Structures are given as structure tokens and as C-alpha cells.
Amino acid sequence: MTEHDSHTVAAIHRELHDHLPSDPALRVKALESVLVGKGMLDPAAVDAWIELYADEIGPKRGARVVARAWTDAAFRARLLADATDAIADFGFTGWGTAHMRVVENTDEVHNLVVCTLCSCYPHAVLGIPPAWYKSAPYRARAVRDPRGVLVEFGVALPAATEVRVWDSTSELRYMVLPRRPDGTDGWSEDRLAAIVTRNAMIGTALVTVPA
Amino acid sequence: MDGIHDLGGREGFGPIDADEDEQPFHAPWEARLNGMVRAISRAPDWTIDWFRHCRELIDPVDYLTRPYYDQWMQTYAAMMIVSGLATVDELAGGRATTRADLPPPMTAAGVAAAKARAVRYDRPGAATPAFAVGDAVVARRDGHAGHTRLPAYARGRRGTIAASHGAFVLPDQGALARDAAEPLYTVSFPTSELWAEAAGRRDTVLLDLWQSYLTKA
User: Fold this and answer.
1) H or E segment at A59?
2) How far apart are CA B128 and CA A38, in angstroms?
3) What are the domain boundaries of chain B?
């Protein structure tokens, strides 16, 4: 049984701070050795997860969802109404995606996703969140100065555009459906997916046609 | 808790590193740690909210300065200790002196099934909504010493129910390994309600908040 006591855990953190190896790589190695020795971890499973996140689970998945929404109106409607169900068409279910919500950028509205309290992110659809998404400056500023944050990412919005910032405080996970850029009429789903970036699906970029 | 983790709206942070590449990890140990936490055997009373709370309890200076996955490492180390699964000496020396009494860990073959597993947190029908879409609400003014998902910047502020999601596990109880559910809502706050400098702007911040975080306006 775990003693779910805040003061006990805070005291343990202080003790760990003083006693663990000074290099993070060594700390992680020590933890892995202990977990394996305890019978709590199989290193081959760790290798398998590393491979999955290197190849299969990443923002290319979300880009395919976006490209389909751009080319298939019925899918787009389903995605906006029940994103979890629509994304399941692709088999992109997994970590952090039991309760998906997709919010759509339009002429009038620009959406931006943040997690001010930790780092919640739809891993199975977008992969590992970028370091900036998990950083203190982004978490602090996205809800207070979203337009200033967007300018740092090279996105200048007209004053008339409404910015909606989604703070991921629950187990709902948000993804932005970006606007389809002009000049892409007739493009295939694959060609469209190739221009959708990770940042565009978080809301810190617009999708553009490469020059 | 009014911890260092509650960063929304804090001022004084500098620019964001917007030029980062799309590589998922920036050191091999980061990828390794991420894989480890997905593969380990877990104590039955470890919940997502207990993990979050244990990370929030990292010393504030460490929280702001230590690399992200290094914080995960220390959080799991602390969770093992408080659950009686390891000692500080074992983790400092990198050598286990006892075995854990837990089910065997995930194998490489088991990863294929585990990768598609999405844990659900909704508890349909477990609680009755008191608010409807369009209702004006005020977020509770005070927090409490334990885990909660009501950020400081929204407390005491007035918003509107934008969506009603049915009952979800209440994190404040989930962090104590109790599966208690409450109605969950998305609440829309005009930025002008949250920040003095946003007066006149039409932008909004939307948060997912549980029923006990809210009162009728």
C-alpha cells in the first residue's frame, strides 16, 4: 500500500536530490538497474517502446488525420463531433487518447493548446511533446499572452481573429485542425499530410505550401 | 496545492525556444526513461494523478531547473520509495537488494498490445450535472493542500459553461487512488476577466473544470 502523503513525498524528493548521481543519464541508468533487479522492468520492452516512438508514433499520425479532414467533409464533421471515434479509424489509439477533442481554426478563430499544470498532450496521435511545450515559459505565457507567444513562433494574427487557448486541465486531449492553405486544390491526402507540421496541430504554426 | 507547477500567467519568463526541431528526444537517456515508464510494473494504487502530484512535490528550484525527463526519473524514484518498493540507497547505488512483490513486467511482445491501450477516465452516469451549457459560473477561490486541477489564475474568476462532458474521475480524489467521479465541464473565460492588460480583447481561455471547482454565478 502506498502512503499518499504530500509531506512524505516532498521529504523523499529532498533526500533524493542529495543522494542520487549528479548526471541525469547516470540517474536514469541507476533507476533502470534497480527496476530490472526488482523484477519490475524488462529492458527488451524499453527497447521496443523506443523503436515505436522513433518510427511509428509521432506527428505524422496527426497529419494524416488532418489531411483526411481537409479532403473528406463527412470525416471532418465526425472528427469535430467525436474525435476519439474518428481517429480510431486510423488505429491511432493509445497513450492519452481515450478522450480526444479536435478544435478547428477558421477565418475568425485561432486555437492554441497548452497544459499550464504539467504537460498533457495527445501522445498516440502527435507523439512526444516538444521541449518548448513542456517548458515553463510556454506554460506560463500561453494563457496570458497568446498573441505574443504566437509572434515568437512567426504567427501574426489579425486583431479581429479570436484566439482560443485550451488549457488541458483534464484527461480530455486537444488537437488543432489547422486551416487548409490556398493553392492546394486537388492535392491528394498524402501530399497534404506532408505539409502538416506538429506545431500547426498544437496551434503555434499555420500550414503553408512550401516554396 | 499552490505549488511551483501552477505556472499559468506567471510573469518574468523569457522567450520560448520556438526553433526546436521535430526530434522527439534530445538525449538517449530521455528516450530510455520514456520507454521505461511505459514498460514498468506499477503498484496498483499508482494513478495518473498521484504521479502528477508526486512531480509537483519536487523541490521548487529543481522543478524549474532540472530537465523534464529527469523530473520524471525522480518522480518515479520517489513513488517507489513511498510505496515501499525501493530505498534511497538502492536508487543512489543503482543496485536492487530486494525483489518487488508485483506482477511481472511487460515483455517486448507485450508492447504491441500495450501501445494501443487508452485508459478511460470517464464514469458515465456516476454523477448528475448541476450546470448546463451557457450557465455563468465562478471558479472556487481557494485550493487545498493536495492535488487539484484548478489553476490559480482561474480562481474566483467568472466564466461560462461551454461544454458538459458527463462524469470523470476527480483528480483531487484520483491522486489518493480513489475512483470518485464528478461532472466535468469546459469553461470559457474571457481573457479580459483573467488579466487586467487584456481589457477590450475578445480572446478566451478554456479550461476543463470539475463541478466542485465551480459555483453558480
Assistant:
1) helix A59-71
2) 44
3) 28-114, 136-216
Q: How far is A124 from chain B (nearest CA, A)?
A: 8
Distance CA A94, CA B83 (A): 27
Report the DSSP pairing between strands B158-169 and B181-190: antiparallel
Residues whose CB is less than 8 angstroms from the CB of residue B107 and which lie 6 or more positions away in sequence, other chains included: A42, A44, A45
Amino acid at A180: R
A206 and A155 Cβ atoms separated by less than 8 Å: yes
**Chain A residues within 8 A of B189 when measuring between CB atoms:** none
**Mean pLDDT for all residues in chain A:** 97
Contact status, residue B79 vs residue A40, Cβ threshold 8 Å: no
Q: How far is A64 from chain B (nearest CA, A)?
A: 17
Kindly provide the ipTM of the predicted complex, given to two decimals: 0.97
B112-167 pLDDT, tens digit per residue, is 999 999 999 999 999 999 999 999 999 999 989 999 999 999 999 999 999 999 99
CA distance A122 to B37: 17
> E strand or H helix at B205, and its extent?
strand B204-210
What DSSP element (H or E) covers B136? strand B136-139
Burial (CB count <10 Å: 0-12, 13-18, 19+), residue A143: buried
Helix segments in chain B, DSSP class H: 28-39, 48-56, 60-65, 68-82, 88-93, 108-114, 171-174, 191-194
Of A47, A69, A198, which Cα lies nearest the Cα of A130? A198
What band does A3 get if pLDDT is binned at 50, 70 and 90?
confident
- Residue B192's contacts (CB-CB under 8 Å, 6 or more residues apart) are B198, B199, B200, B201
Which CATH code for domain B136-216?
A: 2.30.30.50
Task: Please report how the helices A43-55 and A24-38 are oriented relative to each other, as an axis angle in degrees rounded to 10.
Answer: 130
Window B:28-57, CB contacts with A under 8 Å: 28-29, 31-36, 38-41, 43, 45-46, 48, 50, 52-55, 57
Q: Domain spanning B28-114: which CATH class is it, in words?
A: mainly alpha
Provide the pLDDT for residue A2: 86
Rounding to the nearest 10 degrees, give the CA dihedral for residues B94, B95, B100, B106.
60
